[in-house]
Amino acid sequence: MIIRKSPKEIVKMRAAGQVVAETLTKVRKMARPGVSLKELDAMAEDNIRSHGATPTFKGYRGFPATLCTSVNEEVVHGIPSGRRLKSGDVISVDCGATLEGYIGDSAITIPVGEVPEDILHLLDVTEKSLYQAIDACVVGNRLFDISYAVQSYVEPHGYGLVREYCGHGVGTKLHEQPQVPNLGRPHTGPRLKPGWCLAIEPMVNLGTHQVETLEDEWTVVTRDRKPSAHFEHSIAITEDGPIILTDRSAFEA
Length: 253
Ligand code: MG
Ligand code: MG
Hints:
Elements (H helix, E strand, L loop, with lengths): L6 H24 L6 H14 L3 E2 L11 E5 L2 E3 L13 E10 L2 E10 L5 H19 L7 H12 L5 E2 L5 E3 L6 E5 L16 E4 L2 E3 L5 E3 L6 E3 L5 E3 L2 E6 L2 E4 L4 H4 L1
Helix pairs in contact: 1-2, 3-4
Bound molecules: magnesium ion (MG) (2 copies).
């Protein structure tokens, strides 16, 4: 069942989303060579709790931290460790916050120091594919129009689009119906309805689309160990178009 949120609930979803947006903006500023993943995680947890919110991921199915930090060939679900960032790394940071029972979920991939042009291009294409997908979140479209928007934008670049993980409904639970794949046939799937809240999250690899999970049973890496990028927003579908609940523009100015 796909749960529709009332306008009042969407206001609460946006409040949670803005805690995530502010936190990710602060992580981006802090993600410099020499900073450890644990330091980023501690700052993020403090920031979330300073708003009376809680880190959604901490304890979720046993995940031990506030952030998922996935460096270079790590795709998603990396556990923050004492590893220190160095120039040339790219780090995907995924953050969730629960405020008054409602959840925001968003991710960015941050270049650290001097990053090669081909990897910056991968990040750029991945982020733009997310905005293509958000543009497809209009009432009357169908679910897999969102998926197709990602796929049709990414694939001409020759990148590997991750198939095993996808976006999802979001609300009072982190993962609600429906699943939002990053590949799909246009004009298929259920029609989008006002009140749907979705987390859309393309994961795009420089090389093969194939991924595997490390022995820690969390960290997903590319099979060829080439870098990967991940961007995510939580959005709400309304009669007036999509609202980006985790929009960072209030903090990035
Ligand atoms: Mg996420
Ligand atoms: Mg998500």
